[in-house]
Amino acid sequence: AQKITQTQPGMFVQEKEAVTLDCTYDTSDQSYGLFWYKQPSSGEMIFLIYQGSYDEQNATEGRYSLNFQKARKSANLVISASQLGDSAMYFCAMREGYAGGFKTIFGAGTRLFVKA
Amino acid sequence: EAGVAQSPRYKIIEKRQSVAFWCNPISGHATLYWYQQILGQGPKLLIQFQNNGVVDDSQLPKDRFSAERLKGVDSTLKIQPAKLEDSAVYLCASSLDLGTGVYNEQFFGPGTRLTVL
């Protein structure tokens, strides 16, 4: 089974509008972390936002917010007031423990296109 | 503060040849990661170093891939011999923390795009 599922290969959004990128995850651990990274065409992954499994409030970082629904195992990224520079690949990731330590597992990504 | 440096940025080789990638993490970062990102997929961890010791290399194809982090600073990843399916972007990342908890902010380099013909 996929640990991290991003069902939207590509998304379009009009500049200045909000967009939601979906992410569902699968784990039996009680303690885990959820991350979103942005990957522009330059290649490097840029950390955007983090949500811990025990955090009661949804994480926010500027125009980014994470809609965390623990019972549904979803961690959707919401980008408000989209900008042209937001066009990029976005990866959802989960960090969980295993016998040897901790590991971060990435989803397949969603490509976001922001239209002027 | 300088970011994670990687070289080369691009490499084209023929199958069965050898190739090496270099990574210099952010100064002071204890943990270094090498990922393989195949086109259309998310990054997959190949190996994780904590200082100069290997923490996790469970997904490293050890018959052809090797990596070292001498002196706990920069690192090299080698493929010998390369196969067609090794065509991918190889990302290096580092983190200040030891990578032993659920919170772990990783800083990535620009990657090396490898094409194996």
Describe the structure.
The complex is a heterodimer of chains A (116) and B (117). Chain A is an all-beta fold. Chain A has strands spanning 4-5, 10-14, 19-21, 24-25, 32-39, 46-52, 60-61, 64-69, 74-79, 88-98, 101-106, 110-115. In chain A, a hairpin with a 2-residue loop joins β7 and β8. Chain A is globular and about 45 Å long. The N and C termini of chain A lie far apart (38 Å). Chain B is mostly beta strands and 117 residues long. The N and C termini of chain B lie far apart (37 Å). The model of chain B has no long low-confidence stretch (mean pLDDT 94). The A-B interface holds A 4, 31-33, 37, 42-47, 50, 52-53, 91, 93, 95-97, 100-104, 106-109 and B 3-4, 40-45, 55-56, 58, 89, 91, 93, 99-111, 113.
Query: Total number of helical segments of chain B?
Result: 0
Sheet of most strands of chain B = 7 strands, mixed
Query: Total strand count of chain B, please?
Result: 11
- Any low-confidence stretches of chain B, pLDDT <50, length ≥5? none
In percent, how much strand structure appears in the residues of chain B?
Answer: over 45%
Structural topology:
The complex is a heterodimer of chains A (116) and B (117).
Chain A: E1 4-5, E2 10-14, E3 19-21, E4 24-25, E5 32-39, E6 46-52, E7 60-61, E8 64-69, E9 74-79, E10 88-98, E11 101-106, E12 110-115
Chain B: E1 5-7, E2 10-13, E3 19-24, E4 31-37, E5 44-50, E6 53-56, E7 65-68, E8 75-79, E9 88-95, E10 107-108, E11 112-116
Parallel strand pairs in B: 2-11
Antiparallel strand pairs in B: 1-3, 3-8, 4-5, 4-9, 5-6, 7-8, 9-10, 9-11
Keywords:
heterodimer, A: 116 residues, mainly beta, six-stranded mixed beta sheet, four-stranded antiparallel beta sheet, globular, B: 117 residues, seven-stranded mixed beta sheet, 11 strands, 0% helix
Provide a quick synopsis of the model:
Chain A has 116 residues and is an all-beta fold. Helix content of chain A is 0%, strand content 55%.
